[in-house]
Amino acid sequence: MSKKNKDALVVGLALFAMFFGAGNLIFPPELGMQSGSKWILSAIGFFLTGIGMPLLGIMAVSRAGGSIDKLCSKVSPTFSKILGTIIVLCIGPFLAIPRTGATTFEMGIKPIFSGVNSIIFSIIYFSVTLFFVIKPSQIVDKIGKILTPALLAVLAIIIFKGVTSPMAVPGTPVLKNAFSSGFVGGYQTMDAMGSILMASIVLKSLIDKGYKEQKVQMKLAFRASLIAAVGLAFVYGGLLYLGATGNTVFPQDITKTQLVMNIAERTLGGFGSIALAICVTLACLTTSIGLTATTGNYFNELTKGKVSYEKIVIITTVISAVLANVGVEKIVRLSMPVLVAVYPITIVLIIMNMFDNLIHNKGAYIGAVYGALFVSLFDAMSALGFNTSFIGRFMNIIPLSNQGFAWIVPSIIGGVLFSLIKKKEEGLVEE
Length: 431
What we know:
Number of helices: 17
CATH topology of the largest domain: Amino acid/polyamine transporter I
Helix content: over 70%
CATH class of the largest domain: Mainly Alpha
Order of helices and strands: HHHHHHHHHHHHHHHHH
Low-confidence stretches: none
CATH architecture of the largest domain: Up-down Bundle
Shape: globular
Radius of gyration: 22 Å
């Protein structure tokens, strides 16, 4: 194997580990169960936002210059800071980090130690997180390198057994539109948002390996992305199918974590659920540590050192410990309004940066983002329960709105209009 292929393989496996958070296990099975016989359509939609967009995010940031600031600065420097802050808060103390604690409690602790109090557990869990974040140690890296293969091995066995000896035949779907439900369901992984922050880590790794030219970096990043995509597709696809086979086996109101545990127990017995619980517990802890450190570094740099890294990670763990007690289901419901508001903007920025050489007028970025934002804010308000019927009638006539993609056309129109306005302004200045 050549050095380039070997390095691409190493980076690809690292990318897989970064995106493959233990918390992501809870979404595909439920989506599959709700999709039933149409699980393949849901899988395609989920793959686009849960796998495709994160990997395109890595490529887009690489093409833009290696950081989230450069990806978003075509809109404005202020916008870049605002979006970066929202993304870090989402993958940090308000959504993703508390979710690791809640998932650990529901999947790893509760099934084995049913009498443990969730508040006491949260204090212990996030105290351990804080200890490792404030005092970085190679122990965490070593645990992570062992746990990711271990978790993947357990899942591979469960998926293989579930595919060769399915629980039942996928039944009637309960979703109206399997594809769009899968597409929006992929938002919950938060990986597309995380990718534009993780990209700098991937690029730094390639630079450290001696690849200085941007073209070479992009080529290797693409190879690495394909490797990560194959791994993610195997896990997500397998879990979606297992969920689909449980469509007539489990009640539709079963919680996400309980569904995964029940699937593991059905396929491998008590050993399967215990092995999965242990792997998920430790994998969630390493994810929590990594995300907390990322949050601390980001806001320390954003404030130019005015707020210390230590203070930020302490605040992050305290907020996360409180929110973790809300429970996985409520955290997921709370996250949806934010995700439907931010994800379309993230997708627009990723796609436009991928085709930046074809966009000669940068006003298109501003218009496209504002166009997507107009619709995504309306969707967020609807998700929050606000009465939006006064706008809803207008939204229903927008093409693709019934499929859940009402933001696409306004984004395109906004991009074209702002591009023309910017071009006209530039023409007046020249005159």
